[in-house]
Amino acid sequence: MNTNKIITIDGWSACGKSTVAKQLAKELGYVYIDSGAMYRAITLYFLRNHIDWTDIKEVTEALKNIDIQFHCNCKSQQSEIFLNNENIEYLIRDLVIAEKVSDVAAIREVRSFAVTQQHKMGEKKGIVMDGRDIGTTVFPDAEIKIFMTADSAVRVERRFKELFEKNPNITIEEVKNNLEMRDYIDSHREVSPLRKADDAVVLDNTHLTMEEQLAFALQLVK
Ligand code: DC
């Protein structure tokens, strides 16, 4: 088992970052960390507790009550996210969270809270972390950086299929609007906007199968 590297995967919403990250982590025996899940967990906490996130004092106080951990589900062998000891893995994928998460993730205090934990998770290396600013801000010295992209119509279709399974009332328009809005906010915010790190390699998986994208990523690692 080779556990001496940090692999970062950044890119646009719904372009398959987590799929590649999970594939790579499994192949290499690394730990997979979904940094987006952390911002989604914080958003869930804010919504549940009616936190006014335009009020920085309120945000700072609220963050003190948030504990985020990842635990491996022994059955599925997948890592799942816990908010204050509650498994929220399946609650945070909802469109209700997706509609607010980019606003929450743009707050400086929220980012520094999440990044501090991400640094700790990377201390021993041997991790694959996906997100928007992992190769640029969180681990600028990471050994391997991938920047993922795919045609926007393909991304909308993929995310729509995922969400439709859980909610048959969802429309393709809603999904398209959400992805466009998040991509815009994520790439235009003041703190750590989404951008390709200069030393990241682009992986466009519009026309790639899962096997082909894994082969591409493994090639980079080797
Ligand atoms: O990867 P995801 O779609 O679950 O991420 C949800 C949101 O979290 C995304 O729209 C922007 C934010 N995010 C971020 O700002 N920085 C990260 N490293 C990961 C996610």
Structural write-up:
By secondary structure, the protein is an alpha/beta fold. It has a single domain, classed as Rossmann fold. 49% of the residues lie in helices and 18% in strands. The chain contains nine helices and eight strands. Strands 2-6-1-7-8 form a five-stranded parallel β-sheet. A hairpin with a 4-residue loop joins strand 3 (68-73) and strand 4 (78-83). 39% of the residues are buried. It binds 2'-deoxycytidine-5'-monophosphate. 2'-deoxycytidine-5'-monophosphate is lined by residues 13, 35-36, 39-40, 101-102, 105, 131-134, 182, 186.
Q: Can you give me a brief rundown of this structure?
A:
With 222 residues, the chain is α/β, with parallel strands linked by helices. The protein has helices at residues 17-28, 35-48, 56-63, 95-105, 108-121, 134-138, 152-166, 172-188, 210-221; strands spanning 6-11, 31-34, 68-73, 78-83, 86-87, 127-131, 144-149, 201-204. The mean pLDDT is 96.
- Tell me what the CATH architecture is: 3-Layer(aba) Sandwich
Q: What value does the Rg take, in angstroms?
A: 17 Å
Contiguous uncertain segments of 5+ residues: none
**Which structural category fits the helices and strands?**
alpha/beta
Q: What name does the CATH topology carry?
A: Rossmann fold
CATH class category: Alpha Beta
Catalogue the ligands: 2'-deoxycytidine-5'-monophosphate
CATH-wise, what's the superfamily? P-loop containing nucleotide triphosphate hydrolases
Number of strand segments: 8
Shape: globular
Mean pLDDT: 96
Q: Specify the oligomeric state.
A: single chain
Into which percent range does the helicity of residues fall?
40-55%
